[in-house]
Amino acid sequence: MKLTVDFPSVSYREGPEGVLRLAQAIEEIGYDQLDMFDHVVLGHATATRPAPIYPPKMPILEALMTLAYVAAGTKSIGLGTEVLVLPQRNPTLTAKQVSTLDTLSGGRVRLGVGVGWQESEYEALGESFRTRGRRMDEAIGLLRDYWSEESVSSDSDFYRFEAIAMEPKPPQGRDLPVWIGGGSERALRRAAELGDGWLGTTTIGPEGIATAKERICRYAEEAGRDPSELGFQMMLDSPPRDDSGKAFYSDLDHVAATAESLRDMGYGWASINATAVFQAGARSVDAMIEALGAIHDRLRTAVG
User: Fold this and answer.
1) 46 close to 53: Cβ distance less than 8 angstroms
2) Which of 39, 151, 186, 192 has a 20 to 30 A CA-CA distance from 302?
3) In which band, very low, low, confident or very high, does the pLDDT at 244 lie, cut at 50, 70 and 90?
4) Facing residues of 270 across strands?
């Protein structure tokens, strides 16, 4: 089973050297992948909208910028997003950023994308929240065209241009993996029809975790795709929203049992949310390194 760390932006409080030291330690410990969470902004509650899922002042480093910084100080660990809110970003610029990151990291990028949930963030970035699903589907195709074709044109509902070149191509070319996040029915279908894999979180609940892979595989077959070629990743536990969830990552037996259960359901990847590790009591970069090392050792014993 491959192991991913969802990187904690809170590490920036120990300066840029703290961010890089944590990333390098995650690689040295032996994790396969480092993923960055994405929100450009978080909206405050107003008279017309409720408070967001996360505190508005929660620190969130920009995902692609942070991965570029980390890429320069690491050698082999995979670099990805979990997940980039693609429809609120221009797909041409995103294709260029991801291609550059893949080029300068030596082909280590896996792009995770989702449609997001925060309408105020779309408003702040000047994009439509209501059309995000359709633009997501078009944008995925455009990314792959930019990464592989000499000339790219589009006459779609949302993106219209003619005869555009983008160089250099990423080392992985059109095969640069695009994994889809989200637990809605459309997200599962999108992963089956357009993605190279699916990124799940425990917010979909135990029943959703058990059935999501089965549904994606069925949708893939209906779309004429081979389900065995799709990857499946589940976050072992998301950041807790109250005190009841803060003990998860401090109970290594529970962490291992959860990973074993996911492996038995056919998940080939498990993600450790390092922000939740921080919330569980590892309040410094050194403490997070120690905790992530212990989690890694326990998981390798349990699931390989």
Assistant:
1) no
2) 192
3) low
4) 3, 234
